[in-house]
Write a structure and sequence with these properties.
The protein has helices at 6-26, 33-38, 45-56, 59-72, 77-93, 95-101, 106-114, 116-149, 153-200, 207-214, 226-243, 245-251, 257-287, 298-306, 311-347, 363-391, 394-418, 424-448, 458-478, 494-499, and strands at residues 483-484, 489-490, 517-518, 526-527. It is mostly helical. The protein has a single domain (6-353, 361-403), classed as Sodium/glucose cotransporter (Up-down Bundle). It is found in: Membrane. This is Sodium:solute symporter.
Length: 529
C-alpha cells in the first residue's frame, strides 16, 4: 500500500486540531439544556440537511461500504442504500410529527402511550443500541488511524475516541452540528465528486471501459447476497433508522416541521448516492490490482493510491470524520436517554416525563442541567471507548445495535403513530417479548454455531419483529382498555411553531400515562398531529 506524504499527515493533524477548536468555540453557544441536547431547536435547512446526511454516512458506509465494494462489488450498496431508504421512510411517515413533539428522546413517546415501565425498558434497549453503534464508529476510527500512523489498533481507537468525547462533552449538539457540517462538505467534495473523477482517470484503471473490464464479473451482481442477505440489510437498517434515538434527536433540532421533512428526505437520497460512490471506490481498488488481506483497509488503500498529497490526507481525515459524525451523535443520544429517561426519574424522583424535562427553567437551572448532561456524556463516552477496546469488531457491534433496535422497538413506536386507538399494555408486552426473542435467538445461534441465528444473522431481527407484532396484536385483542395515541402538543400559535422557539419559552402537553386521552374524549385544547 502506498505510503502517505508528510503533507497528508500535516493536513490530518490540522483537521483534528480544528475539531477540538470547534468544540471549544461551541461552549459559547451552549447556555441551556436544549442548546446542549438539540442545538436550541433552531437549525435551518442547510445545517439540518448537512447534519442528517453526515450522521447517516458514517464509518459503516464510508469505510465499511468501500470494503464491501472491494470484497463483494456493487451488492455492497445495500449497506448504505438501506440507511438511505430508512431516512426516506422516516421523512415520509413521521418527520413532521416528530419535529412538533418537542421531545428529547424516543422513550417519551413510548411513555405517552404505554406507561412508565415501558419507557424505562425502552430506555435500556435504546442505550444498548446507541452504545453498540458508537462502538462501531470507534473501531472504524481506530482502524483508519492505525493504518495512517502505523500504531497499535487499540491505542488508535483510544486516541481518536478521546477527540470525539472531548468536543462532544464541550459543545453537545452545537459542537456536533458544526463538526458535521465541516465533515459533510469534505466528504461530498471528496468521496462524491473528486474521487470518482480522479480514479477513473488513473492509468491503472484506464477510464470507464477499463474499470468495467478489470472489475470481476461477479462484482456486478446487485443480488450477490441473495434474497436472505439482501433482506437482512433492509431489516437491519430501515426500521432502525425510522425509530433510532440518534436520528430522532437530530430531527428535534429542525426549526420547523417542513425543514425536518425536506431535510430528512434529501439526506436519504444523498446517502444512497454516497454509498454508490464508496462502493465504486472499493471496486476501483480491486480493479487496480491492489491486494488487501483486510477489506476494511480498502478506503485507505484507494485514497492513498489514487489521490495526490494533501488531498489524500484530507479525504482520509474525512473518513475519520464520517465515523466521528456518528460517534458524537450516538454518544450524545445515549447520554440524553440516560439523563431524560433514567436520571430525571430515579435521581430527581420525577414520576412522569413532563415533571422535569420540559419545565420552564431559569437561566441558572438550565445551565446546571447543561453541565449535568456534559458529565453524563463524558462518562458514557469514556465507557464506550473501554467497551470498544474489548469488542474490536465493526460489523459485530453494528449487528448487535440494530438487532435490538429494529427487532424490539420498531413495532410499538410505529403503531403509536399509525393507529387511532391502542392498548397501553400492548407496547410494554411487545417490548419485553421481542427483547427476549432477539437476545435468546442470538445466544442460541452463538452457542450452536449457526450464523443465521447468531449476532449478524437474519433470524434474530425477523423473530423479534414477528414476536413483537404478534404480542402487540394479542394484547390489543384481549385488553378492552383503549386510548388515543398521544403524539400531540399543546395548541400554540402557528408563529411560535414556525419560529422554533426554545423549550424554555413554552410548556408542551403533559406526557405519561396520565395524559393519554380515553377513547371518546376530545382531550381539551390540543393540536392533533
Amino acid at each position: 500500500m502506498k505510503a502517505l506524504h508528510v503533507v497528508d499527515y500535516v493536513v490530518i493533524g490540522l483537521y483534528f486540531a480544528a475539531l477540538v477548536g470547534i468544540g471549544l468555540w461551541s461552549v459559547r453557544k451552549t447556555r441551556s439544556r436544549d442548546d446542549y441536547l438539540v442545538a436550541g431547536r433552531r437549525l435551518g435547512f442547510p445545517l439540518f440537511f448537512g447534519c442528517m446526511s453526515a450522521m447517516a454516512v458514517g464509518g459503516a458506509v464510508t469505510v465499511g461500504g468501500t470494503g464491501k465494494g472491494y470484497s463483494d462489488g456493487i451488492a455492497g450498496m445495500w449497506v448504505g442504500g438501506s440507511l438511505g431508504m430508512g431516512l426516506i421512510l422516516l421523512g415520509m411517515l413521521v418527520s413532521n410529527r416528530l419535529s412538533r413533539l418537542r421531545a428529547l428522546s424516543i422513550n417519551e413517546v413510548i411513555e405517552r402511550n404505554y406507561g412508565a415501565a415501558a419507557r424505562v425498558f425502552g430506555a435500556v434497549l435504546t442505550i444498548i443500541y446507541t452504545v453498540a453503534l458508537t462502538v462501531v464508529q470507534v473501531v472504524s476510527m481506530g482502524a483508519i488511524t492505525a493504518g495512517l500512523f502505523g500504531i497499535n489498533l487499540r491505542w488508535a481507537m483510544f486516541g481518536s475516541g478521546l477527540v470525539v468525547v472531548f468536543y462532544t462533552f464541550l459543545g453537545g449538539m452545537w459542537s456536533v452540528t458544526m463538526t458535521d457540517i465541516v465533515q459533510f462538505v469534505i466528504k461530498t467534495l471528496g468521496v462524491l465528486i473528486f474521487v470518482p473523477i480522479v480514479v477513473l482517470n488513473d492509468s491503472s484503471i484506464g477510464g470507464i471501459s477499463g474499470f468495467i473490464e478489470k472489475v470481476p464479473e461477479s462484482h456486478w451482481n446487485l443480488g450477490a447476497y441473495g434474497v436472505s442477505g439482501t433482506v437482512y440489510w433492509i431489516l437491519l437498517y430501515v426500521p432502525g433508522l425510522v425509530i433510532g434515538q440518534d436520528i430522532w434527536q437530530r430531527m428535534f433540532t429542525a426549526r420547523t416541521p417542513s425543514i425536518a421533512r425536506a431535510g430528512t428526505l434529501s439526506a436519504g437520497a444523498y446517502t444512497i448516492v454516497y454509498s454508490l460512490a464508496a462502493v465504486v471506490l472499493g471496486m476501483s481498488v480491486r480493479a487496480a490490482g491492489i491486494q488487501l488481506d483486510d477489506p476494511s483497509m480498502a478506503f485507505e488503500a484507494g485514497v492513498s493510491a489514487f489521490l495526490p498529497p494533501g488531498i489524500a490526507g484530507l479525504l482520509l481525515a474525512a473518513a475519520l470524520a464520517a465515523s466521528m459524525s456518528v460517534a458524537s451523535g450516538t454518544i450524545l443520544a445515549c447520554s440524553t436517554v440516560v439523563y431524560n429517561d433514567l436520571y430525571v426519574r430515579f435521581i430527581r424522583g420525577h414520576g412522569t416525563a413532563s415533571a422535569d424535562p420540559h419545565d420552564v427553567q431559569d437561566a441558572a437551572d438550565s445551565q446546571r442541567d447543561a453541565w449535568i448532561n456534559r458529565g453524563i456524556a463524558l462518562v458514557v463516552g469514556l465507557a464506550i471507548i473501554g467497551l470498544s477496546l474489548l469488542i474490536g469488531d465493526l460489523f459485530k457491534a453494528l449487528d448487535l445495535a440494530y438487532g435490538f433496535l429494529s427487532g424490539c422497538v420498531f413495532v410499538p413506536v410505529i403503531f403509536s403513530f399509525v393507529l387511532k386507538r391502542i392498548s397501553p399494555k400492548s407496547g410494554f408486552v411487545s417490548l419485553v417479548a421481542s427483547a427476549i426473542t432477539v437476545g435468546g435467538t442470538m445466544v442460541f445461534g452463538e452457542a450452536t454455531n449457526r450464523p443465521d441465528f447468531a449476532v449478524g444473522g437474519n433470524w434474530p431481527i425477523t423473530f423479534g419483529i414477528g414476536v413483537g407484532l404478534v404480542a402487540y396484536l394479542l394484547v390489543m385483542a384481549v385488553d378492552r382498555t383503549r386510548i388515543v395515541p398521544n403524539v400531540e402538543i399543546e395548541d400554540e400559535p402557528a408563529a411560535v411553531l414556525e419560529a422554533g422557539s426554545s423549550a424554555s419559552a413554552e410548556r408542551p402537553s403533559p406526557v405519561g400515562t396520565g395524559s393519554n386521552v380515553p377513547s371518546g374524549q376530545d382531550g381539551g385544547h390540543r393540536l392533533r398531529l
